[in-house]
Amino acid sequence: MELKITKEKVLEASKGCPEAKKTLETLFPEAFEDERYYDLTNAPFKLIGGIGLPNIEVRMDGNYKNKAFFLSSHSTNWEIIRDSENCIVLLPTKNKE
Fold first, then answer.
1. Does residue 32 sit in helix, strand or coil?
2. Are 67 and 48 within 8 A, CB to CB?
3. CB 37 within 8 A of CB 63
4. Which residues have CB under 8 Å from 41's CB, separation 6+?
5. Helix, strand or coil for residue 81?
6. How far is CA 13 from CA 24, 30, 37, in A?
7. pLDDT greater than 90 at residue 42
8. I need a labelling partner for 60 at 20 to 30 A (CA). Which of 18, 32, 39, 70 fits?
């Protein structure tokens, strides 16, 4: 007998029971993939930056649409580093052109 399972059924079965969720995540990791991402569809901003400033935008295309930020790179390098207070920060620096 062949059973058909959907993402919705897997997620519904995982509700309310942490042990079941852990097992289902092992069996069907793709059903839980979206839990890794923030939904930026209604983010309070779409664009930061402007003329001469680095741009950060909500990604509007591709497989990370509304899940990631697009960082302009034509004149900016981006690094994720720890600052002097051990906080993780996103540091834009100008490209040497």
1. helix
2. no
3. no
4. 58, 66
5. strand
6. 8, 15, 21
7. no
8. 32
Residue 51 is predicted with a pLDDT of: 64
Give bridge partners of residue 50 from the DSSP assignment: 53
Give the predicted TM-score (pTM) of the model.
0.60
Q: Which two tokens stand for residue 73?
A: 């790179």
DSSP-derived 3-state class of residue 56: strand
Bridge partners (DSSP) listed for residue 92: 78
Q: Which residue has the tokens 């580093």?
A: 81
Amino acid code (one letter) for 25: E
Nearby residues of 97 by Cβ (< 8 Å), 6 or more positions away: 75
Residue ranges covered by each domain of the chain: 7-36, 47-94
